[in-house]
Amino acid sequence: MWFKPIDNIGLVLWRIVFGLLIALESFGALITGWVKEVLIDPVFTFSFIGFEWLQPLPGYGMYGYYTLMGLCGLAIMLGYRYRWSMLLFAVLWTGSYFMQKSAYNNHYYLLCLLSWLMIFLPAAKDLSWDARALGKSQNRMPSWVLILLIGQVWIVFTYAALAKHYPDWLDGTVIALFMDGKKNYPIIGPWLQNNTAQQIIIWGGIFFDALIIPALFWRRTRVAAFILSLGFHLFNSIVFQIGIFPYMSIAFALLFFSPQSLRQKFGRWIIRFETPIQNKLEQPHWVKPQIQNLSPTKQPWIPALIVVYLVIQVLLPLRHHLIKDSVLWTEEGHRMSWRMMLRARKGITSFYVMEPGTGVKSVYPLRDLVTQKQLKMLSSHPDFIWQMAQKIKAIEAEKRREVGVYVRSRVSINGREYSPLIDPDVNLAEEPWDAWRHHDWILPSPF
């Protein structure tokens, strides 16, 4: 099963779309000012804890950084020096992901995973610069390629469906909050405030995430599922403006359609691309695919490695169940868990410093340290609050001043009343961080 040779046209077309999308994501981050706002303007960035050494390049270096990522995307699309282009993009994108989380998005994490997976896939064996340069191409791949990619995508959508099974999503609280911010959208804005429309979004989101992969698998429902996928993801793109993820999700369908169908749809373009190097006189392979008679290399460690990887991907989103209290309140175990579009957090947070022995606390000014975007996250997320406390401690230490850092924070989840989040009597400057356990300075959930 793992090494059965199958037509690779779905993977090859996916590579082309993937390269185009990551190029648009990279260049778009420059054009829209995202790079400047998130990576250049801040005095410092809130990196993932443990990656504080990973900071943006000084000056306008991040412009060059993202330009290079965009060029890698174009090279991947063309299949030019594919392995190296894919490796470079994976390194750069992962670096950008870990160096800041003020603009955290589950889709950025998915792009990290896919980028590293794509390095090892034979995605440039056909319809690529590399294949033309070698004067040959391959139109097959081992089955484990599809098992790996579809397994990864299935895990994402399954957890997205499971995470929605909680009261604030099911009773419409979350969607009502989200849609209230869209009421001024032209044409669809008023419709999005309608209760019936919101119920369609609530239950449509659950059923779509849970069933779209099986529906794409089954030949009889594949076309209908693809049309539904188009509508669902284009709606998300327009309403929620979540970058390339909707279009990447649409492109996932290339992995499900039969190679014969894909070659018939794209056949003329494929033949035009391949003719100069293959000089084919026989019937075009997009009419009847010709699988090359090459013996597959069977390496037993590949299935074992894929199984281990997918098991980790299944288990990692469950880790919050091993951590005390609700992840909705503490955020512990939230990231990398496909908990997408589930909650709205607002907070009011103040930092205080106290010199040992004095007992006097004074408000610490943050205005010159954080941007408005960072402040929004800082006000309601415990890990941001802890990192800010460490930063204040370091700043004061440079002044040869040892201080304790205390926090008063009140947070509202999904429109509820504000409740205390942080124990105001705990010196956060002296508290350690452990990503795998609960921190007792986070006060108990009020719900």
What shape does the CA trace take? globular
The Rg value, from CA coordinates, equals 25 Å
How large is the count of helical segments? 18
Distance linking N and C termini: 48 Å
Query: What is the count of distinct domains?
Result: 2
The largest sheet, given as strand count, sense and whether it forms a barrel, is: 4 strands, antiparallel
Helix/sheet category: alpha+beta
Strand numbers in spatial order across the main sheet: 4-3-5-6
What is the tally of beta strands?
6
Instruction: Give the % helix.
Output: 40-55%
Strand-residue proportion: 5-15%
Order of helices and strands: EHHHHHHEHHHHHHHHHHEEHHEE
Task: Summarize model confidence as the mean pLDDT.
Answer: 92
List the helices and strands and how they pair.
Layout: E1 5-7, H1 9-31, H2 34-40, H3 61-78, H4 82-99, H5 106-119, H6 129-134, E2 140-142, H7 144-163, H8 167-170, H9 173-180, H10 189-192, H11 195-217, H12 219-240, H13 245-251, H14 259-278, H15 301-315, H16 327-330, E3 345-354, E4 361-363, H17 372-378, H18 382-398, E5 404-413, E6 419-420
Antiparallel strand pairs: 1-2, 3-4, 3-5, 5-6
Helix pairs in contact: 1-3, 3-4, 4-5, 7-11, 7-15, 11-12, 12-13
